[in-house]
Amino acid sequence: MLFLMYLSVFLIAGVFVSFWIFNRYVLKLSESLFKSFLTYATFLILISAFGLSGYFSYPGWFLIIPILIISFYFYNAFYRHRFRKKHQFYKPLSIEYPPSSQLIFTTTNLQITRYRCILSKSTHDSIRIAHLSDMHLDLIPDSSFYEKVINAVNASNPHIAVLTGDFISRNEFLPQLYQCLKELNPRMGSYAVLGNHDIWEGAEETRRHLEMCGIKVVSAKCSLLKTKSGATVKICGDESPWGEELKCQETQYMPADLSIILTHTPDNMFKLSRKDADIVFSGHLHGGQWIFPLVGPPVSPSRYGRLFQQGHYLVNGTHHFISAGLGIVWYPLRIFCNPEITIIDVDL
Ligand SMILES: [Fe+2]
């Protein structure tokens, strides 16, 4: 019994170290057979190494090493909890959950999250923004799900739709992307940046299909628009680290009442909060995609680990909305993590 407990501590530490290496290094590689091989190899080698170390070192002081690793993991969980408490600002106004007939494990249990964001700019204008991210068009979910998504966005009658990348998982789905997004019709237009998968699968082709749908792709540039009452809105895009970075001069010489930056990864949050932005939108982390009770999401492809995941944050005075996304990667499964559309009413 004691031996099994001893061994379990080693195996748990092995799992934590594998996830750390997977999130930090393996996930950054572009999709390929080599990446799949490296993923399974990382888990297999590390868990076996930790298991064997436990087996041969029993009983002994060597146990301190996995205990330190597990303690560090829980210290990180505590730090993350404190960070989120400090920076999480708005709670959603409402969350429209999927019908209870839909299981928590499906990939099509669409959730609509609504926020109100008060900027107090004294222009007495209000702009409704719909945020969509990480469609990851592939075989699953099928096109009927995305029809439902676009209908839900149109029904919420937004002024602007912002899309923060990873439209496709494979480039043969670009025609389907066109069929789906050409129906999107916000009152003042749609704006997008590309994500890592779009860039790996073909940035130019993805941009072309988005532009064909009437979506303006703001790759490392800005676009200016005016509301009916005359307030100006600037929308810029930063596609780093996979694509081009938004230069400071692009954002500075275009003053506007509302300044928005779109980026795929929340890892750019601190960098962009120092630029002239009121609101930053991002996605990429899929809200964790698989969230296990007590443990949280094991996979989080971020430099900051699981700090941001999804929701609203206020960092250095800049509002940051991170979407849980719509599609899936790897296994066709979302666990306690619904695909999400976010609707934000911004009071200027
Ligand atoms: Fe991504």
Name the average pLDDT: 88
Low-pLDDT segments, ≥5 res: none
The H/E string reads: HHHEEEHEHEHEEEHEHEEEE
Bulk shape: globular
Strand content: 15-25%
Radius of gyration, in angstroms, nearest whole number: 21 Å
Lateral strand order in the biggest sheet: 1-2-13-3-4-5-6
By CATH, the superfamily of the largest domain comes out as Metallo-dependent phosphatases
Separation, N- and C-terminal Cα atoms:
63 Å
Characterize the quaternary organization of these chains: single chain
CATH fold-level label of the largest domain:
Purple Acid Phosphatase, chain A, domain 2
Question: Architecture of the largest domain in CATH?
Answer: 4-Layer Sandwich
Small molecules held by this entry = fe (ii) ion
Tally the structural domains: 2
Helix content: 25-40%
**Class per helix and strand makeup:** alpha/beta
Query: How many extended strands?
Result: 13
Structural features:
single chain, 348 residues, alpha/beta, Purple Acid Phosphatase, chain A, domain 2, 2 domains, 7-stranded mixed beta sheet, 6-stranded mixed beta sheet, 8 helices, 13 strands, 34% helix, globular, binds fe (ii) ion
Overview of the structural elements:
The chain has 348 residues and is of the alpha/beta class. The protein has 2 domains: 2-85, no CATH class; 90-347, Purple Acid Phosphatase, chain A, domain 2 (4-Layer Sandwich), CATH 3.60.21. Helix content is 34%, strand content 20%. It has helices at residues 2-24, 33-57, 64-87, 143-155, 174-181, 196-212, 248-252, 269-273; strands spanning 94-96, 111-118, 126-132, 160-164, 190-193, 215-217, 222-226, 232-238, 258-263, 279-282, 311-315, 318-322, 340-347. Helix 5 (174-181) packs across helix 6. Residues 166, 195-197, 264, 284 line the site of fe (ii) ion (FE2).
